[in-house]
């Protein structure tokens, strides 16, 4: 059967029209998806978590000054409440004790491994009825492998198996970074030595 | 009137062409708008303020240790300048006094309301000629409703009706958050009790 | 030669098809490029450094209380390790000394220039074998030119010519800002006066 030319053309145009419509739909769909995830006024606010842009694991080692270990000590009590003193951590779960530290950072859990940097800052025991601390400190790196600092702040309810603190900034290799560090107590020996493992997950890298 | 088939086809094609062109224009326009608002090199820097992604209001209550209120006290002086002591806030507007706290957080301004979390950290009085403090602390939540921490730092010129400090990070329900908290002194009783209202406006939510 | 209508229509449609295909390709290409540069799951993480959105230079001046200069002093020792006291910076490179300060900020390096704000917070000497400190403080501005705060935290290995700390947040004119401040010791006189220059580079402005 011979088709009328108009009908034929119209039929082809219809197919073309459908194809175009479908393509345009796909494009609009892609746009809508992207608008939904990133370009709305909500752009700056609702962010996707996703995978960290950098993951790091370190250990750091704290030997607190107790009046007898001046040579080895890496930290010291520098503030206490009225009922405390600066060579013995205070009662009431050390509430109010302020400790300044300069702890070696190692890649494994061995205190005697070569340090790759220093953890420097302070912690404050801040609860009377259970051990809990507040931390403000930096990881300071100054080697050919790593150079720069990562700055941390946050609550450390240290009786929990793991606890999260904030990575609030960084410099050098860690310029402007942000993230979360998960701390866990890897060892705890009397009231003189403890070792923390820090699993650092950075979610903003520059 | 009977149209010539070619003319008809061409006419329909023209309409189709116009339709396609118009659709493509709209798409390109959308793309251009989006490039303008988000994908330039300025993307990371100039950000729009807009509405907060989360708004929260809490109260927290500080009862400072004065030598007699050990049971109720939620905070204690742990550092003072040479002229101070740790049971009475020092002269010169308490300049130099370091206070560690573990304060209950409530949803209303009643000290005896069930606490929904703890405000833990420290403040330092840091000005000789007027009351002013510097704050480093966390809101710690651990209930079925709220879990995680919000970390704060900043200057607190506490004689001002309101003052803004920074939300520098968060964990759990407040993972990676940033924002501004507006503090106001809701009550102040002698030198033993004060209550702060914190209006937290988060502008980065993940 | 007169073309058969069908053939003609078909030919035109083919051209239209090609045009559409080409346009759609361009659009998809644009989309792909933008996906690559900004909208992937990496969007929030890998950020371009580029130029700061704001650059500021200030000086601040610290006069530490030594028992005799109560009138002029802008800072005081408020915590020390067991071997220290609060009118003389401790041995071992002042390890453990906590100093609270309220220092004038000036636009040039002259202590007597009119202050444009105050640097308020604390520093902690935190290393036994070299001078190193950890800083938590704010620049507080309250003039017609500048209003708001910039909050800082980080390690200050002060024997280095320059060292970087983090801008962790801000309020007012510096709402939500982030960046890096490069500190350098502009003057150091005995153990009583020092002057720091702060080159502030902000990379997130709102």
TrEMBL record, chains A, B, C:
Record's Gene3D superfamilies? Allene oxide cyclase-like (2.40.480.10)
One short Pfam name that applies is Dirigent
- Share an example GO biological-process annotation for this protein: phenylpropanoid biosynthetic process
Give the source's domain of life in one word.
Eukaryota
- Stored InterPro entries: Allene_oxi_cyc_Dirigent, Dirigent
Its cellular-component GO annotations read: apoplast
Q: Which UniProt keywords apply?
A: Apoplast, Secreted
Where it sits in the cell: the answer is: Secreted, Extracellular space, Apoplast
Q: Which family does it belong to?
A: Belongs to the plant dirigent protein family.
Q: What does this protein do?
A: Dirigent proteins impart stereoselectivity on the phenoxy radical-coupling reaction, yielding optically active lignans from two molecules of coniferyl alcohol in the biosynthesis of lignans, flavonolignans, and alkaloids and thus plays a central role in plant secondary metabolism.
Q: How does it assemble?
A: Homodimer.
- Name recorded for this polypeptide: Dirigent protein
């Amino acid at each position: 059967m011979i088709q009328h030319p108009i009908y034929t053309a119209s039929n082809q145009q219809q197919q073309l029209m459908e194809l175009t419509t479908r393509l345009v739909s796909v494009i609009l769909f892609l746009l809508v998806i992207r608008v939904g995830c990133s370009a709305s006024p909500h752009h700056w606010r609702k962010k996707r978590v996703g995978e960290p842009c950098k993951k790091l694991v370190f250990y750091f080692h704290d030997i607190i000054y107790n009046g007898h270990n001046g040579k080895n000590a890496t930290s010291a009590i520098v503030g206490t409440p009225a009922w405390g003193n600066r060579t013995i951590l205070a009662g009431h779960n050390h509430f109010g004790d302020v400790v300044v530290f300069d702890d070696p950072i190692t890649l494994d859990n061995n205190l005697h491994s070569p340090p790759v940097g220093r953890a420097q800052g302070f912690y404050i025991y801040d609860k009377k009825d259970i051990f809990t601390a507040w931390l403000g400190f930096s990881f300071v790196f100054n080697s050919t492998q790593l150079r720069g600092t990562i700055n941390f702040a946050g609550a450390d309810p240290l009786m929990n198996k793991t606890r999260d603190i904030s990575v609030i900034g960084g410099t050098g290799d860690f310029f402007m970074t942000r993230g979360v560090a998960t701390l866990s107590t890897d060892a705890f020996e009397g009231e003189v030595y403890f070792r923390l493992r820090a699993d650092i997950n950075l979610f903003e890298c520059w």
